[in-house]
Every structure is written in structure tokens, then in C-alpha cells.
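Hi V.,

You were right to ask for the full record rather than a summary. Here it is.
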Amino acid sequence: MKGQIFTLDMLLALAAVTAVLGYTTMQFENVYSQSHNLEYQKMQTLADDIAQLAVKNLLAKANSPNDLDSTKLAAAQTTLDAIMPSVYSYEIAFVSNSIHSGACAGKSNIAISNRVITGGTLTAKVCS
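Predicted structure:
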């Protein structure tokens, strides 16, 4: 069979190479996807933790649950700055006051945690 361009041996070898390349590409995509999911889960955990810390700070300084003063939120900023990894920025807003270590506006990777407490909703954002 002279003149054949695609022999059976070559087609079988090409199919095996294609299968190996496809499987390798799929594994790389899975690793890439998992790294993004782990990064988001880490940010979500940080957002939940700083929201709880802010709520604890607000409630600890109040005489009663109905006596929340949102200006006391600033007292939590030094603690938050100490525990927050430097690669992330955060924003916490309650009623009309907010504290932040950097703006999350315009960032594409943001985790948000909300806490409903007397007087409004506390929103914590962590972004990278």
C-alpha cells in the first residue's frame, strides 16, 4: 500500500497522543480551578471572621443591644489590621460608618459576609 498518508499504526498512535494530551490538559484545568476555589474559601472565612469580630466589638461596647453606636466600629480596626494578611484588603460597613484597609471597589475577587444586628446590617468584604 504505497502512497498511503494515514496508516492504521499512525492513526492509533495519534489517538493515544491526543488522549494523553487531553487528559493532561483536563488535570491542569482541575488544579487551576481548585486553587481559585481554595482562595475564595479562604477569603470567605476571613470575611466571616472579621464580621464576627466587628459584631463582638460593637456589642461588647454597648450598654444594651438597642444601644449600638456605629462609631465604635473604629476600635476594631487595629485588631483587624493585625490579623489580616497583607495580600488582602477589607471593608466593614455598619449603618453610616465604615472602616477599611483598602478599597474593594473595582476588584474582581471579593468575598462578602453580612450580619444582621439591631440597628442595621453589618457588611464585611475581603478582596484581593
